């Protein structure tokens, strides 16, 4: 079961990123500022990710709840912080190394993706915790 969920999570993530990138490029081409375009693109990817992970990855077909929505956004805020911290730390540790940007970016993505999966599985879409706010 976890193998199927992990595969679904990764597929959903790839589609979310592609959707966000398309929104980003499209908004920039229509003259929207980079900050607004990036924010809207990020939110579009997050919104798609919520529904795709809810239904496709974790087969959670109950009605959308305030708890799930709040937990989802809180999780993403936390994992964004982890991503930024790991990226900054790895960037400093690898200073002067060949591939510094790729290494720091990759480590940050791995850390935040792992935490996102675990948070979605055990906190956001955990059927046993639906009664907890």
Question: What is the secondary structure topology, with strand pairs?
Answer:
Layout: H1 2-29, H2 34-57, H3 66-93, H4 100-124
Features of this protein?
133 residues; mainly alpha; 2 domains; 79% helix
Give a brief rundown of this model:
The chain is built from 4 helices and no strands.
What does this structure look like?
With 133 residues, the protein is an all-alpha fold. It folds into 2 domains: 61 residues; 72 residues. The longest helix is centred in the first third of the chain and has 28 residues. The mean pLDDT is 91.
Structural class: mainly alpha
Q: Please give the largest β-sheet.
A: none
Number of beta-strand segments: 0
Q: SSE order, as H and E? A: HHHH
Low-confidence residue ranges: none
Rg, Cα atoms, Å? 16 Å
The geometry reads as: globular
């Amino acid at each position: 079961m976890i193998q199927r969920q992990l595969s679904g999570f990764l597929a959903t993530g790839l589609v979310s990123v592609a959707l966000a990138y398309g929104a980003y490029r499209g908004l920039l081409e229509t003259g929207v500022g980079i900050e607004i375009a990036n924010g809207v693109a990020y939110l579009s990817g997050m919104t798609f990710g919520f529904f795709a992970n809810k239904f496709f990855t974790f087969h959670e077909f109950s009605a959308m709840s305030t708890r799930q929505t709040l937990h989802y956004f809180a999780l993403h805020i936390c994992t964004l912080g982890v991503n930024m911290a790991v990226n900054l730390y790895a960037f400093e540790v690898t200073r002067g190394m060949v591939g510094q940007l790729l290494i720091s970016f990759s480590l940050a993505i791995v850390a935040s993706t792992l935490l996102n999966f675990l948070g979605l599985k055990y906190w956001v879409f955990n059927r046993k915790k639906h009664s907890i706010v």
